[in-house]
Design a protein that fits this description.
The structure is a single chain. With 339 residues, the protein is an alpha+beta fold. About 3% of the residues have low confidence.
């Protein structure tokens, strides 16, 4: 072998070794060891069994890469076409038809309309078709011990996940989810699963992977717990927004602006809403210029599911498309001879 070839080979080998080392930080193994001890003392897990379980967890650099570039960082004009599509709305209508009794029961019990429940499941996983391919152990251990920016949060989610698998008799090794460890058709993080999921089919388990009843009931229960107001509007589009309204846009996501103030500033807003109704003012970048919307209370409730105005707007607009297809299907069925 020529000296130059040997040098190049050694350089390549060093790069490979360096990359591998960078992919799994030293904090990963030491973090897992400490975590095992704490889970044993805090929750009574057997350390030997838990070590065997955590030996199955693998650090995955692509999980770090994925969480560093969330879709919610996009402009609305790029974000909307991903989630608000005719095919997703059609699948939502089919899901609604197939689960109509469950959705009606959820509405009666929790006050959340079917189209919102269906839209959440549609945006999250296309009605269970894409519920995640990452082993949850890999996702949560990678983020807990290899992502210092949010390590404490994901460490708590790993703790919640192991408690969940013990309570619900879920195999922690085979459980799959998103790159952030979100679970099942509605993509609940483990702490939300434990806090908000309900056994809507009364079979003794809360199964958000396979039971449409539990999925529907749990999404509705989540919204109810976050104070969804039955029959109240979600959002309204407004026009004539100018530079003088910039400070309203910058006021933040939480409703804090009285509609009376916006009316006094020159915006026309549905008169059925009282002046003391609180809202936010949302600016979205679209192809035809910026759009402006009111973030009313129920819109803010949707952002409790995912803290993004883009996400909440996608859910809302998909829900309208699903509702339109559902009504069209009902009208067609009623118009058919013999219906």
């Amino acid at each position: 072998m020529k000296p130059g070839s040997l040098r190049n080979g050694l350089t390549l080998l060093l790069l490979i070794i360096g990359t591998a080392a960078a992919e799994q930080p030293a904090s990963y193994d030491s973090g897992i060891s400490q975590f095992i001890q704490e889970m044993s003392s805090k929750h009574g897990f057997d350390q030997t069994i838990l070590k065997e379980l955590m030996d199955n967890a693998k650090y995955r650099q692509k999980i770090i890469d994925a969480i560093s570039k969330p879709a919610e960082g996009m402009a609305w004009k790029k974000y909307r076409p991903i989630f608000v599509t005719e095919s997703r709305a059609k699948q939502g209508m089919e899901f609604w038809n197939n689960n109509e009794q469950l959705l009606n029961r959820a509405k009666e019990q929790y006050g959340v309309p079917p189209e919102i429940i269906v839209a959440i499941i549609g945006v999250e996983t296309r009605y269970g078709r894409h519920a995640g391919t990452y082993p949850v152990l890999d996702a949560l251990s990678t983020l807990a011990f290899g992502y210092p920016k949010r390590g404490d949060f994901f460490r708590s989610q790993l703790e919640e996940f192991l408690l969940l698998t013990r309570e619900e008799e879920v195999d922690p090794v085979s459980a799959k989810g998103s790159y952030a460890g979100a679970l099942g058709q509605p993509q609940f993080i483990p702490s939300s699963y434990r806090s908000y999921a309900v056994d809507f089919d009364n079979d003794g388990r809360r199964d958000l992977w396979h039971s449409n009843a539990d999925v529907i009931g749990s999404v509705a229960a989540y919204f109810k717990r976050h104070h969804w107001q039955q029959n109240d509007p979600v959002t309204l589009q407004v026009n004539d927004v100018t530079k003088i309204h910039k400070h309203y846009i910058e006021a933040g996501m939480k409703p804090s602006i009285e509609l009376g103030s916006l009316r006094a500033s020159g915006l026309f807003i549905d008169q059925t809403l009282a002046d003391n109704t609180l809202t936010s003012l949302i600016e979205l970048e679209s192809d035809g210029g910026n759009e402006y919307w009111l973030g009313l209370h129920n819109f803010y409730v949707i952002t409790r599911y995912n803290h993004s105005n883009l996400y909440a707007m996608a859910v809302y607009q998909l829900s309208r498309e699903i509702m339109a297809q559902y009504k069209a299907g009902k009208n067609q069925w009623q118009a058919e001879p013999g219906a």
